[in-house]
Design a protein that fits this description.
The complex is a heterodimer.
Chain A lengths: L1 E3 L5 E4 L5 H13 L5 H17 L7 H12 L3 H22 L7 E2 L11 E6 L3 E5 L8 H9 L3 E5 L6 H12 L7 E3 L4 H9 L3 E5 L2 H7 L4 E4 L4 E5 L9 H9 L9 E7 L3 H12 L15 E3 H14 L4 E4 L5 E3 L4 E4 L2 E4 L16 E7 L11 E6 L4 H9 L3 E6 L17 H5 E6 L3
Parallel strand pairs in A: 3-4, 5-6, 5-8, 6-7, 8-9, 10-11, 10-18, 11-17, 16-17, 18-19
Antiparallel strand pairs in A: 1-2, 4-20, 12-15, 13-16, 14-15
Chain B lengths: L17 H13 L6 H7 L45 E6 L9 E5 H17 L8 E5 L6 H11 L4 E5 L2 H9 L3 H21 L4 E4 L1 H9 L1 H10 L2 E4 L6 H11 L4 E8 L4 E4 L11 E2 L6 E6 L12 E9 L4 E14 L11 E7 L2 E2 L2 E2 L6
Parallel strand pairs in B: 3-4, 3-5, 5-6, 6-7
Antiparallel strand pairs in B: 1-2, 7-8, 9-13, 10-11, 11-12, 12-13, 14-15
The chains are: A alpha/beta, B alpha/beta.
């Protein structure tokens, strides 16, 4: 099948592997030997350098980045940041992955602690499968942690953007991981299920439906972020406007860690207006432009998103994008421009609508509303020092990450969890005592 | 007492004039003494006289597609009266039921003998050895394929081991979203195949692509198959070229892999054209003039150009059955007949099911 850029121009041909190939590849992963930890660490770091510095399969790093921007529509600056994060992840994955290790456990049965009896952190399985998303290269920095933990890994790339996993896996192979230790498996939907079925554990990206389907299984779903920001009374939003606007629009608004909803105690209108003014000033540029900020999509798809937004936003007050969010670039592609809508209550249904561009819902909130409207957030940035509220927010299971004070929702570093540590899902402790 | 036109029983090593053969068949099927009640009853409603208005295969399109009537017609009414009071019936068989209620057809011994003689010649051309045992993982009653292959094995001097497969049950499970149960059923099939592979001399394995895939997944069985089996015959659903290549080169490098394509409604099955390379599509040449294929544009019903895709139309013309213009569920590429071999009508390649057929969604599955 043909991979096209945002203007519909063909960029590459992607061959899909048949189910039988998947079965055999997964078998090979299962039979393979895991590299010793020290070799994994070295190979991962080497892979990062190859990824960044070498020509991989005919593409230089710059050509690769430009291609990713053109096919995914993610702005060039975001691609640079995301690919830098991937390179850093290969370097630090061996450390970052082990941040999840319980304090009572050691890495290796050879550790001195096991002579007295100690927990050892061990893999729950051998083979890990990833159904990657194509909206952003960033998530590919996560599964390298599984390699660091000693899993053999199969990645099914998104058809929209197969370049990042292809380059990363090529680099990992060149760096010393065997063909039976990490594989790229582009497939149709039927064979895609086979990849998950024949793996011990899996990771999938998708919407609410995917999350419901896989919740509580051996497959870890990564769903919508619905990240939020809370501006309580006593905090002047003017002091944090940069952080708020950045949280909405950084990375073109395509990520799950972009703010979807801003809740403000008091009248939301002035903040909504201020956000709208800032976002309105962002220029519309093709994704490969160094100054691009906004994401670009094929015009037809952009129009569908626009129609969806306009239909769902009915009854709200538009501060930006009320007439539409599509600006065509004339080559078949279109910039997804920001939208700012004001809601009249924090539990309005629109507050949970997350779209792949800077689309924010600004709603009133008061302590009487409680934390209900703050639930189901991948990231919640709360400009508060109210300890009772913080206690409550931290205890809330559906808030995955809590940022207090002036920290954008997209803040993330290797070594801190994105949505719990991957190691919490893939590893377990086992007691070992020896003579 | 009627006499049988020798044209209807032409020796297989001769080439009858196809149009004369067709006219002889029409005389047989539409004469009150020899025809079936099914056709004699319908003769008056056709709007033309099949005995005088049909000059040859080119005119066959005038007949309506009556295959849907096979869903509820009395099976007895399908047997030509010319076979007398004690026709030698092998069985009454049904279509898969993929597209609604099953259609029913009667298989007469006389036709089966002709079919086996012809298809056995095809197997010889594929290099399939005679005198070996077959492991047939296919549906038996009410479906035809199991019984026919059993008889074919006997015809070629081997024993047939059968593992029954109920495609309708699998399709029902898949339609209900019970994929795990469908998978468990398929594993049950594979378990039964395993016992036979482990204990018996199996020279030829016949199964569907989904079953073959599950066999390949079990390393011990894949090894056994490659050691014992001389030929693997896959039938029932399509297989993509990449998968075929993997089987030939990596999974079963020693066995000869070939496919078959047929339909209950033409009372038979054609093997893939011998000598095709991995880059060729799977081409099927029918048993002409008894089976005749056409590939049409589904909208206009016009025959498509060679190399174009369209929906498959099949005709069956023999002494035992006349069933023209049956629009099959499959899509195919229209291909000329094999060079140097006499054939009327087209060959078909790269079969794939139509997704929607007679307003029933086609369900493919383990079958």
């Amino acid at each position: 099948m043909t991979v096209t850029d945002v203007a519909g121009a063909p960029v590459a041909e992607l061959s899909l592997v048949p189910k039988l190939f998947v079965t055999r590849a997964m078998d090979a992963l299962r039979k393979a030997r895991t590299l010793p930890a020290a070799e994994r660490t070295a190979a991962l770091a080497r892979a990062g350098r190859i990824f960044a510095e070498e020509t991989v399969d005919g593409l230089t790093f710059e050509e690769y980045q430009r291609t990713v921007a053109r096919v995914s529509g993610v702005p060039m600056g975001v691609v640079r940041a995301a690919t830098a994060a991937i390179i850093e992840a290969t370097e630090v994955a061996p450390v970052a992955a082990y941040q999840a290790r319980p304090v009572g456990a050691v890495d290796d049965w050879r550790a001195e602690e096991t002579r007295r009896g100690s927990a050892v952190w061990t893999r729950k399985g051998d083979v890990f499968a990833v159904h990657a998303a194509g909206n952003h290269p960033g998530p590919h920095s996560l599964w390298v942690e599984a390699l660091a933990m000693g899993y053999r890994v199969a990645v099914r790339p998104s058809r929209r953007e197969p370049f990042t996993p292809h380059r990363l896996i090529s680099a990992l192979r060149a760096a010393g991981f065997g063909a039976d230790q990490v594989v790229l498996l582009p497939t149709d939907y039927d064979a895609a299920d086979e990849i998950l079925r024949s793996a011990d554990y899996g990771l999938v990206y998708g919407g609410d439906e995917v999350v419901r389907k896989y919740a509580g299984t051996r497959v870890l779903p990564q769903g919508p972020g619905r990240s939020k920001m809370l501006v309580p009374a006593g905090t002047d939003w003017r002091d944090h406007l940069d952080t708020i606007v950045d949280s909405i629009a950084h990375q073109g608004g395509v990520a799950c860690i972009n703010a979807t909803t801003v809740l403000v105690e008091g009248d939301p209108a002035p903040l909504a207006q201020a956000i709208a003014e800032r976002l309105a000033a962002i220029p519309s540029l093709p994704p490969e432009d160094e100054k691009a900020v906004l994401a670009v999509q094929p015009a037809e798809g952009a129009r569908k998103l626009e129609a969806f937004l306009l239909a769902r936003a009915a009854g709200t007050t538009a501060h930006l994008g009320g007439d539409g969010i599509v600006e065509e670039l004339g080559d078949g592609s279109a910039v997804l421009r920001p939208a700012v809508h004001q809601l009249d209550r924090p539990d309005a249904e629109q507050a949970g609508i997350e779209l792949p561009f800077p689309c924010v819902w600004v709603a009133p909130w008061s302590p009487a509303d409680g934390i209900g409207p703050l639930r189901n957030s991948l990231v919640l940035t709360a400009f508060t020092d109210d300890e009772a509220l913080i206690d409550e927010l931290l205890a809330e299971p559906t808030i995955s990450n809590l940022y207090l004070g002036d920290h954008p929702t997209y803040w993330i570093r290797p070594g801190v969890p994105h949505d719990s540590y991957l190691g919490e899902f893939l590893m377990r402790t086992k007691t070992v005592i020896r003579d | 007492m009627s006499t049988v036109d020798p044209l209807l029983e032409f020796p297989l090593d001769t080439q009858p004039d196809p149009d004369e053969f067709l006219r002889a068949a029409l005389r047989w099927h539409f004469s009150p003494e020899t025809g079936s009640p099914f056709w004699i009853e319908r003769a008056g409603t056709l709007g033309f006289d099949p005995l005088t208005d049909i000059g040859g295969f080119a005119d066959l399109g005038r007949f309506p597609n009556l295959a849907n009537e096979l869903r509820d017609v009395r099976a007895e009414d399908l047997i030509p009266r010319g076979y007398g009071d004690r026709p030698d019936v092998v069985g009454v068989y049904e279509s898969g039921g993929t597209t609604g209620a099953p259609k029913r057809i009667v298989l007469l011994k006389e036709w089966l003998d002709r079919l086996l003689a012809w298809s056995s010649g095809q197997l010889d051309r594929h290099g399939v050895p005679q005198g070996v045992n077959w492991l047939v993982v296919a549906p038996t009653g009410p479906h035809m394929v199991g019984d026919v292959i059993k008889r074919q094995t006997a015809f070629r001097g081997g024993l047939a081991f059968t593992v029954d497969l109920d495609p309708r049950w699998v399709k029902k499970l898949i339609a209900d979203g019970k994929t795990a149960e469908a998978g468990a059923y398929a594993e049950h099939i594979v378990d039964q195949v395993a016992f036979l592979l482990q204990t018996q001399d199996i020279g030829v394995l016949m199964c569907t692509p989904p079953v073959l895939e599950r066999l390949a997944r079990r390393e011990d069985l894949a090894k056994l198959i490659d050691e014992k089996v001389k030929a693997i015959n896959w039938v029932g659903t399509q297989m993509d070229a990449d998968t075929r290549y993997l089987y030939r080169t990596e999974v079963f490098p020693k066995a000869h892999l070939y496919s078959g394509y047929g339909s209950t409604m033409i009372l038979g099955n054609a093997s893939e054209r011998p000598g095709l390379t991995d880059d060729d599509p799977c081409i099927y040449d029918p048993f002409a003039p008894h089976m005749v294929f056409d590939v049409v544009d589904p909208g206009t019903r016009e025959t498509v150009a060679y190399g174009e895709r369209g929906q498959v139309v099949m005709h069956h013309v023999s002494k035992s059955l006349f069933m023209p213009n049956n629009l099959e569920r499959d899509y195919a590429t229209r291909v000329p007949g094999p060079e140097g071999v006499w054939q009327i009508g087209d060959s078909v390649a790269d079969i794939a099911p139509v997704q929607e057929f007679d307003n029933e969604t086609v369900i493919e599955g383990v079958y």
